[in-house]
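User: Could you go from structure to sequence for me? I need the amino acid at each position, not a summary. Structure tokens:
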């Protein structure tokens, strides 16, 4: 049998052979089989009810997935997992982009046991998690909720526990209006399920801060006045008012629903997380003072950086030392020294032979 010909097998044998071809990357054989036996291909599923499209997503076969989309053979077959789950199981980011952007698959399928974002965090795949979050996946970090809002209903009986509900906003395709729907709590990924030593916890923390900065920027730039009553409401109330502006409506929808990737920082480079305890203080103690030159000053008049052997002014030093060996320029502004160092004389001034007596 040549590589371009299909083997002569029975239907049951073809069922196992097709999935072996997908797993081994023999795409041409699968395409030829589907062209010849399209009515049989719809019935082929594995023992765990995985269909041919799900197997293509699992093993990153984007060519086969595009062919199945043209043939209108995109089906799932498994009641528990979807195509998005299969792409996350295989860590296939290109396939996941195709599912979310081209096929318009839901980044949060109605699977209450294991949302796709949980699979990405278990595999510690930040690229897949970032893609799902930018397309509208739900997660909660502390008191912050992404793409959803947390509503707390206080019971009338004080002995009962308050009820928590997650709600989000979506566009109704029938009348093209924004409606609020309730989201099952099991679809919201919780940061408490991440181990403390996992690398994904700082990533989720940074995603929370970055998205909050974006929402805050949109909030400050909106022109609709708020009264005292609406100030007490949460972000959904603001978003509902902001949707009245058609120019702002699409931008907020891109953030909330994830129609496409949004630069949350307005196009600037995103800040990096640093350890504050390891940062060097801005002014080193017992070091010469560096001048802050005005922005409009002539470069020829700019003061060069002082080295440790030159005489430099120091705030709190004797008056005769202030202008010794320095040009008379009122625009110079010395950097403020630490409060504990204001009344101390720098080490190089302790040598009386190198400096005249101020008296």
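Assistant: Here is the amino acid at each position, in order:
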């Amino acid at each position: 049998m040549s590589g371009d010909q299909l083997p002569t097998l029975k239907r049951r044998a073809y069922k196992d052979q097709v999935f072996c071809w997908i797993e081994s990357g023999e795409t041409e054989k699968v395409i030829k089989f589907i062209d010849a036996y399209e009515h049989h291909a719809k019935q082929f599923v594995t023992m765990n009810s995985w269909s041919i499209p799900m197997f293509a997503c699992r093993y990153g076969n984007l060519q086969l997935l595009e062919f199945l989309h043209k043939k209108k053979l995109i089906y799932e077959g498994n009641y528990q997992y979807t195509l998005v789950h299969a792409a996350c199981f295989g860590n296939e980011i290109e396939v996941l982009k195709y599912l979310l952007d081209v096929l318009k698959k839901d980044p949060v399928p109605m699977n209450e046991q294991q949302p796709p974002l949980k699979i990405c965090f278990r595999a510690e795949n930040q690229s897949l998690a970032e893609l799902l979050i930018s397309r509208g996946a739900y997660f909660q970090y502390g008191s912050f909720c992404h793409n959803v809002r947390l509503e707390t209903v206080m019971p009338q009986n004080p002995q009962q526990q308050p009820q928590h509900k997650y709600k989000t906003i979506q566009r109704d395709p029938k009348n093209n209006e924004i409606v609020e729907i309730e989201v099952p709590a099991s679809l919201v990924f919780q940061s408490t399920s991440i181990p403390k030593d996992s690398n994904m916890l700082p990533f989720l923390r940074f995603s929370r801060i970055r998205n909050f900065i974006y929402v805050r920027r949109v909030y400050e730039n909106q022109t609709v006045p708020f009264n005292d009553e609406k100030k007490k409401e949460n972000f959904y109330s603001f978003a509902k008012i902001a949707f009245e502006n058609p120019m702002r409506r699409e931008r907020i929808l891109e953030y909330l629903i994830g129609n496409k990737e949004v630069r949350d920082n307005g196009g600037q480079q995103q800040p990096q997380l640093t350890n504050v305890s390891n940062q060097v203080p801005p002014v080193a103690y017992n070091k010469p003072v560096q001048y802050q030159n005005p922005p409009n000053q002539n470069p020829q008049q700019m003061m060069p950086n002082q080295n440790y052997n030159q005489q430099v002014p120091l705030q709190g030093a004797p008056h005769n030392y202030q202008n010794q060996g320095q040009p008379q320029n009122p625009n110079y502004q010395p950097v403020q020294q630490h409060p504990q160092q204001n009344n101390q004389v720098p080490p190089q001034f302790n040598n009386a032979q190198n400096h005249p007596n101020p008296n």
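One structural detail worth keeping in mind: The chain has 13 helices and eight strands.
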